[in-house]
Specification:
- The chain has 18 helices and five strands.
- The protein is mainly α.
- It has two domains: 1-117 and 430-502, no CATH class; 122-413, no CATH class.
- β4 (451-454) and β5 (457-458) form a beta hairpin.
- InterPro entries: ThrE-like_N, ThrE_2, ThrE_Dicarb/AminoAcid_Exp.
- Residues 431-444 have a biased composition (Basic residues).
């Protein structure tokens, strides 16, 4: 087989494996497309079309009008929450487009990522989600007994859903089983200690089950125009939420048969102590979610900080300034902005910090009150559920807007860290097509790698590739040659435009 064909396969293999890793961890379609195009353009390929759908990444390349098209399709597996592997995929992407590692080394690294041992033991991940549930109960004013019960219930339902997923049982039934467990444990607590507010246990379990759903990526795809992927993700999120509703409703039928009432009492009174409790609970929830999703150790403190800030912001705004919907949107905006700025600094996935930061904003109590009211007053229950849906949309929209503004700010500042900066953009498939819709900005600062493909996306293409108008395919290793990693800084500019682009 000719050497150039072998290298073409290697480039596509690297790009598709990275795209699959990002997509299975919930990254938006624009981010997956941009990362794949960064890798391809850094390898010297032009006019490669990238298509990203809900569970598939496809690449197509046509060197000229007389050649056979080269197309590869890779289907992704089930959704996972392993941010340590997501960080590994982003790290390989960053090193490759910067020219620090060559193609073969990058491909070897990316092939080993799915086989890597989990960042934490499985029991520690379960413990993380259990602690998150206990912190959620604490944020609603639960006593020590309620917090401990919520911790045990959260750990049990996460373990059960993992066992069901390992046996190839659809996740819908896993969510339903988790919702039922939350109500069942609350019933047992009510029987053992009737004076305790056992409904907080159900609310905490709902928050744990809702944590990590693909609502942020779905909303980003929807508002930016990636409607095919967005529709599938929104449907997935909706069905998993319906699974929780089914499980909770089944448990509530059990309480009706037993003649029990486990309604949610009034929220804790407004005070300095409740504000401090919200901050502490938010920090612990963020930390628990980070451990449960195998987030690298160096990022645990940052995720805890972001979650604590979001809890304080929504607490203050919803009590003093605006209602809960706008307060949640503002807090999510802060989370999105902080996540992007911190991610580029600590070289960690922004998605991980966003998912952890919005945990304190999840409207678990409204969902439970709505389900509880459906059996007595359908209109009142529907109103509560609609209010919960409003908050969910506000959280997702606020986080996406924060990402958008922060990423545009960082892209104008330049510098490294491109793989860690989210790409919030309308649909694009090739660097050339994207480039033709944007103003060209040419900067000749020596030692800087400038934009050459998409807004906010950088290319480590050597100048010889950019200026060679006759060659449609250049498969030289980006770490070798005059524009590679060993070249002087001044020789690594990629801001030149081809005659065709002009």
């Amino acid at each position: 087989m000719p050497t150039d064909i072998v290298r073409l396969h290697s480039v596509f293999d690297l790009a598709m494996r990275v795209g699959e890793g990002l997509l299975t961890n919930g990254a938006a379609a624009s981010e997956v497309t941009a990362s794949v195009l960064r890798i391809i353009s850094s390898s010297g390929l032009r006019d490669v079309v990238v298509e990203v759908t809900f569970n598939q990444v496809s690449l197509s390349y046509l060197p000229d009008d007389y050649s056979t098209p080269f197309t590869r399709i890779r289907a992704t597996g089930s959704r996972v929450q392993d941010f340590a592997r997501l960080a590994a995929f982003e790290e390989v992407t960053e090193l490759y487009i910067m020219g620090v590692v060559g193609l073969e080394e990058a491909l070897a690294k990316v092939r080993t990522i799915p086989q890597q041992k989990s960042h934490y033991p499985r029991w520690l991940a379960f413990l993380g989600f259990a602690v998150m549930g206990g912190a959620a109960a604490f944020s609603f004013g639960g006593t020590i007994l309620v917090v401990l019960t919520a911790t045990l219930a959260s750990g049990a339902l996460v373990a059960l859903t993992e066992i069901m997923a390992a046996r190839q049982i659809p996740m819908f039934f896993g969510q339903a089983a988790g919702g039922f467990i939350g109500v069942a444990v609350a019933v047992m607590l009510h029987v053992a200690a009737p004076a305790q507010n056992s409904a907080i246990v159900v609310v905490a379990c709902i928050i744990v089950l809702l944590a990590g759903l693909a609502s942020i990526g779905a909303m980003q795809d929807a508002v930016t125009g990636w409607y095919v992927t967005a529709s599938a993700r929104i449907l997935e999120t909706l069905m998993l939420t319906v699974g929780i509703v089914v499980g909770v409703r089944l448990g509530l039928l059990l309480t009706i048969l037993l003649g029990m009432n486990i309604s949610v009492d009034a929220s804790p009174p407004l005070s300095l102590a409740s504000g401090v409790a919200a901050a502490v609970a938010g920090a612990v929830m963020g930390l628990g979610f980070a451990v449960g999703t195998y987030t690298p150790v160096r990022v645990l403190g940052w995720m805890s900080l972001v979650a604590s800030v979001s809890a304080v912001v929504v607490y203050l705004l919803s009590h003093f300034v605006v209602d809960r919907v706008w307060g949640s949107a503002a807090a999510a905006f802060v989370v999105g902005t902080m996540a992007v700025l911190i991610a580029r600094r600590v070289r960690a996935p922004a998605l991980a910090m966003i998912m952890g930061g919005i945990i304190p904003l999840v409207p678990g109590s409204r969902i439970y009150r709505g389900l509880l009211s459906l059996s007595e007053d359908i209109s009142a229950g529907a109103a509560e559920l609609f209010a919960a849906a409003e908050i969910a949309v506000a959280i997702a929209a606020g986080a996406v807007l924060g990402q958008l503004l922060a990423s545009r700010f960082l892209s104008r500042r330049g510098g490294a860290g491109w793989a860690y900066t989210p790409v919030v953009s309308t649909p694009f498939q090739t660097p050339r097509r994207r480039r033709l819709t944007l103003p060209h900005r040419r900067r000749r600062d020596a030692g800087m790698v400038e934009p050459s493909t998409m807004t906010g996306e950088m290319s480590a293409l050597p100048p010889s590739v950019l200026h060679d108008l006759q060659q449609e395919l250049d498969l030289e290793d980006p770490t070798s040659g005059p524009g590679g990693a060993d070249a002087p800084d001044g020789a690594r500019r990629s801001d030149a435009l081809t005659q065709e682009d002009r």
